[in-house]
Amino acid sequence: MTDNDDMAEFHWMMDMVQTVDVGIVVLNKSYQVKVWNGFMESHSGLLPSQAQNKTLFELYPHIIESWFKRKAQPVFQLRTRAFMTWEQRPYLFKFPNYRPITGSEDYMYQNITLSPLASATGQVNNICMMIYDVTDVAAHKKQLEALQVRVTEYEEKGLTS
User: Fold this and answer.
1) Domain-located, residue 117
2) Which of 66, 97, 103, 114 is deepest in the core (most CB within 10 A)?
3) Spacing of C-alpha 85 from chain mean position
4) In total, how many domains does the chain have?
5) CA 18 from chain center: how many Å?
6) The domain containing residue 56 runs over which residues?
7) Which residues form a coiled coil (predicted)?
8) Would residue 154 count as lying in a domain?
């Protein structure tokens, strides 16, 4: 591969990171933001230049630092992925639901994956957070659970045939 080929590949990969419909945030071991993609910019209202080099906890003081670090440390140390689901915590980033007319939820429900990013030397000095919007899935599951409760109540009252 030539230098031009490498540069072209780098550019299309960066374009993909910026336009994918998933939040991508890269954090270093000090939890400073190194990458803040277009999804994050769009939903947070923060430009990458406003987020870069600030800690996650400076940007989002509501995130409990000790809890988040307990989730992230094994990713750095053991080089394993970690997961946060909306069932455990509805969201990490309190983004408004961007479908307020058709959606029944005020905020975006999120699943999050933390992945280690190994350097050329094999060291993990950065982790990647991938933030998935699962609002539709969460809303449907909540509706199903509410319906199941109502059916059970009807059955207990003897109102079913």
Assistant:
1) yes
2) 114
3) 9
4) 1
5) 15
6) 3-134
7) none
8) no
51: left (phi over 0), alpha (psi -120 to 50) or beta: alpha
Residue of 45, 44, 40, 14 lying closest to 27 (CA atoms): 40
Name which of 96, 129, 128, 131 is nearest 110 in CA terms. Answer: 131
How many C-beta neighbours within 10 Å does residue 32 have? 17
| Across 80-109, average pLDDT | 85
Q: Any idea what the Cα angle at residue 52 is, between residues 125 and 21, rounded to 5°?
A: 90
User: Considering the entire predicted model, what is its pTM?
Assistant: 0.81
Residue 80, pLDDT > 80, answer: yes
- Closest by CA to 109, choosing from 75, 76, 86, is 86
The owner of tokens 């069932």 is 87
CA of 160: how far to CAs of 9, 71, 73, 135, 157, in Å?
A: 62, 46, 52, 32, 8
- Position 10 scores a pLDDT of 59
| CATH (domain of 24) | 3.30.450.20
Give the pLDDT confidence of 70-79 residue by residue, as tens digits. Answer: 999 999 999 9
* Spatial contact of 12 and 36, defined as CB atoms under 8 Å apart: no
DSSP letter at 107 equals B
- Does residue 145 sit within a domain? no
